[in-house]
Amino acid sequence: xxxxxxxxxxxxxxxxxxxxxxxxxxxxxxxxxxxxxxxxxxxxxxxxxxxxxxxxxxxxxxxxxxxxxxxxxxxxxxxxxxxxxxxxxxxxxxxxxxxxxxxxxxxxxxxxxxxxxxxxxxxxxxxxxxxxxxxxxxxxxxxxxxxxxxxxxxxxxxxxxxxxxxxxxxxxxxxxxxxxx
Length: 181
Known about the structure:
This protein has 181 residues and is of the alpha+beta class. The protein is 28% helix and 22% strand. The strands form two sheets. It has a six-stranded antiparallel beta sheet. Strand 6 (148-155) and strand 7 (159-164) form a beta hairpin. Helix 2 packs across helix 3 (84-93). The longest helix is centred in the first third of the chain and has 18 residues, at 48-65. Residues 20-49 have low confidence and may be disordered.
């Protein structure tokens, strides 16, 4: 019984958020691009509701960024260690948004959006396991600059950090983007 428990815990640790090693993506390269709009670029007047959403997104991003450098810990939700879904869960909870705790459950909430529609505060979902078929990693969009989308997340190898969706590994593991605000 003890041996089965240890094997189960080892399996869970290995299949947790993000990869243990960086996967090389030489073949089957998939690129995600964000095209600029050709519409009128004059300043927009934002509604009060849109302004509140933007302020909420900035507050959530600020909370998440405060955990930068925190080491990875499976199931963790504190500055002593956290996993990818723990980072998103805590960042939302500290800003009065209740959300599921695990990445695959999070992926069922919100509105599906196209990558070219991604804004700050949106969530990006990934499938990083070769054997698993469900979403097992989540990141929070912190900046969009043209076709470069930056997101904060927690990886098993480097802890909480900001990455780009342009990076080959994350680009190939990308599944979908969701809007929750």
